[in-house]
């Protein structure tokens, strides 16, 4: 299925914000614009189809498809600005030259899906227009009923020859006199208050169809995700290699060079018949350099693959928790051991999440849960801090998301203001 747009945002604190007024304007313009688009697209399709055996006919069809794509871009932009929801555009291929451009337009499914949207846009725009009529128009008419009843009425001729004016009558009950007109005024006020919500709800089918016809297909979305994760994996591998090279050059290599110099000095001292104390001092310095080089190598290897993971993820997480400065509770329920790659990703995700919580959350305690489901390894870290963590806000969560996506994993962050913050990593298992 195509990726659906995100659910509607929470209702604003006060009605008639800028977004609600923009939604009202767009609901009023969608039907006439949709009818114009329908007429243009139908004309292009019919004329292009009749002339498709000629070059001008093919160019007309290609321009018709390109116009539908442009209209789709406009609708996606309006959806993003008005409703705050993003529909990812499908990938488009453009060849070199006019003929390749025309061929790409006529062959790609994205263009013809956009044509289908253009033919249906006016019809899908009818529910928002009906919501505007009910919420805004009837709401205003009912709220101002006591004022406009002097002009908005019909004359009823009675059997005895007399007449009476009727402005609002429901089920034989008139609401034209005090205090009966308070009821339509109340209904009108409620409709006006709910009008932005009615319009927003009425656009839900429009947004769903837009995601289906103007958004990425499942195959396109899969390809885009694989391209992004592949690029991220290449970047991470390059950064890791550069870090290893820098650590070896600046740390271990320098210590080994120093070790070699001291051993050379020992050989010269032995040849010169130096005193025992002098030889021991140089050997002690060389031994210190060797010990430091071994420690640097151990730290370097630990950054690539923590040796504690050889004992299993439970032991590795217990080691992480033991070294955390906050009061941390660990719960593990891992029925079968995951692949080494998944264990490594889960370990580094846990390490990063514990570090983030320690630095930024303001919490005094943490909870780490790791368990296996039928087809997934799940890692969850919870803190009782001030909340407000957002993926992509420089909290390190963006890097974790890129890491878990390399194995088709997901990362969810639930962090309302005031906390608590719960970050859940789900890694699919074979």
TrEMBL record:
The record ties this protein, via InterPro entries, to: HATPase_C_sf, Put_sensor_dom, Sensor_HK_TwoCompSys, Sig_transdc_His_kin_sub3_dim/P
Q: Which residues cross the membrane?
A: 21-47, 53-71, 114-138, 181-199
Q: Which reaction does it catalyse?
A: ATP + protein L-histidine = ADP + protein N-phospho-L-histidine
Q: Which residues form the Putative sensor domain?
A: 28-214
Residue ranges of domain Signal transduction histidine kinase subgroup 3 dimerisation and phosphoacceptor in the record: 242-309
Per UniProt, the keywords (alphabetical) are:
ATP-binding, Kinase, Membrane, Nucleotide-binding, Phosphoprotein, Transferase, Transmembrane, Transmembrane helix, Two-component regulatory system
Entry-linked Gene3D superfamilies: 1.20.5.1930, Histidine kinase-like ATPase, C-terminal domain (3.30.565.10)
Methyltransferase recorded as keyword: no
Which SUPFAM superfamilies does its entry note?
Answer: ATPase domain of HSP90 chaperone/DNA topoisomerase II/histidine kinase (SSF55874)
Q: What is its EC number?
A: 2.7.13.3
What is this protein called in UniProt?
histidine kinase
Q: What organism does the record attribute this protein to?
A: Streptomyces iconiensis
């Amino acid at each position: 299925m195509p990726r659906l747009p995100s659910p509607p945002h929470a209702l604003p604190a006060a009605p008639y914000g800028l977004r609600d007024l923009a939604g009202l304007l767009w609901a009023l313009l969608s039907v006439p614009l949709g009818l114009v688009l329908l007429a243009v697209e139908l004309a292009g399709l019919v004329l292009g189809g009749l002339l498709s055996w000629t070059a001008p006919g093919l160019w007309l069809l290609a321009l018709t498809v390109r116009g539908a794509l442009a209209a789709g871009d406009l609708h996606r932009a309006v959806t993003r600005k008005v409703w705050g929801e993003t529909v990812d555009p499908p990938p488009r291929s453009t060849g070199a030259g006019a003929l390749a451009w025309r061929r790409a337009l006529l062959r790609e499914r994205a263009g013809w899906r956009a044509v289908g949207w253009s033919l249906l846009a006016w019809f899908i725009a009818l529910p928002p227009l009906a919501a505007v009529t009910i919420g805004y128009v009837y709401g205003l008419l009912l709220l101002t009923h006591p004022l406009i009843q002097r002009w908005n009425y019909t004359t009823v001729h009675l059997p005895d020859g007399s007449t009476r004016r009727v402005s609002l009558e429901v089920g034989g009950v008139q609401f034209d006199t005090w205090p009966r007109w308070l009821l339509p005024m109340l209904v009108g006020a409620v409709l006006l208050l709910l009008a932005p919500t009615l319009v927003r709800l009425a656009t839900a089918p429009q947004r769903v169809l837009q995601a289906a016809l103007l958004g990425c297909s499942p195959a396109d979305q899969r390809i885009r995700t694989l391209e992004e994760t592949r690029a991220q994996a290449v970047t991470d591998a390059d950064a890791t290699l550069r870090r290893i090279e820098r650590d070896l050059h600046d740390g271990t290599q320098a210590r080994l060079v120093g070790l070699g110099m001291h051993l050379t000095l020992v050989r010269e001292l032995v040849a010169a018949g130096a005193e025992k104390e002098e030889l021991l001092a140089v050997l002690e310095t060389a031994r210190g350099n060797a010990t430091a080089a071994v420690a640097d190598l151990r730290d370097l290897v630990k950054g690539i693959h923590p040796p504690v993971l050889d004992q299993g993820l439970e032991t590795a997480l217990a080691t992480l928790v033991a070294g955390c400065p906050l009061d941390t509770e660990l719960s593990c329920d891992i029925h079968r051991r995951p692949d080494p790659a998944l264990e490594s990703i889960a370990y580094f995700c846990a390490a990063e999440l514990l570090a983030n919580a320690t630095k930024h959350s303001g919490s005094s305690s943490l909870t780490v849960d790791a368990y296996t489901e039928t087809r997934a390894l799940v890692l969850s870290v919870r803190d009782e801090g001030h909340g407000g963590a957002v993926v992509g806000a420089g909290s390190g969560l963006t890097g974790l998301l890129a890491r878990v996506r390399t194995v088709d994993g997901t990362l969810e962050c639930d962090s309302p203001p005031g906390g608590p913050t719960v970050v859940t990593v789900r890694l699919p298992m074979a």
